Each structure stands twice: as structure tokens, then as C-alpha cells.
Design the sequence.
């Protein structure tokens, strides 16, 4: 996944562990045929990278930030 930050392009990976965490957290059925239902937000901060996932169906937000 690529993230544009000014003129720098940063690449973030969603790990297997994160996917597992997301699956455990949300069990909504995707409404769209592509199966896409999550919006990922990457926010670089002074403390590190904040990663949030929002479910398009129930609008729940999961914070995946690790290693703070
Ligand atoms: Zn959901």
C-alpha cells in the first residue's frame, strides 16, 4: 500500500497478523462484489505511525498501531 506524504511516497504493509486482527474484530459481510469493506488510514506522527482501519459497513474503527 502506498501513501503519499508531500513529495515522499511511503509504503506500508498490512501484515498477516494485522489481517488476522481485523478478521477477529469485524465480521460484517461485504456488500460489494469486490469484497472491499475497509478503509485504511495511515497517519505519521512524531511518535510513530498510527494505523486505523474503518469498516464501511458498521463504521467501526480499529486501531492497529503497534510498537509505541
Ligand atoms: Zn463492520
Sequence:
Amino acid at each position: 500500500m502506498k501513501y503519499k506524504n508531500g513529495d515522499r511516497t511511503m509504503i506500508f504493509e498490512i501484515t498477516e497478523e494485522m489481517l488476522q486482527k481485523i478478521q477477529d474484530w469485524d465480521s460484517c459481510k461485504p456488500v460489494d462484489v469486490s469484497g472491499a469493506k475497509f478503509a485504511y488510514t495511515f497517519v505519521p506522527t512524531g511518535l510513530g505511525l498510527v494505523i486505523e482501519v474503518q469498516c464501511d459497513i458498521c463504521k467501526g474503527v480499529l486501531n492497529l498501531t503497534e510498537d509505541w
In short: The beta strands are 2-5, 8-11, 38-45, 48-55, 61-63.
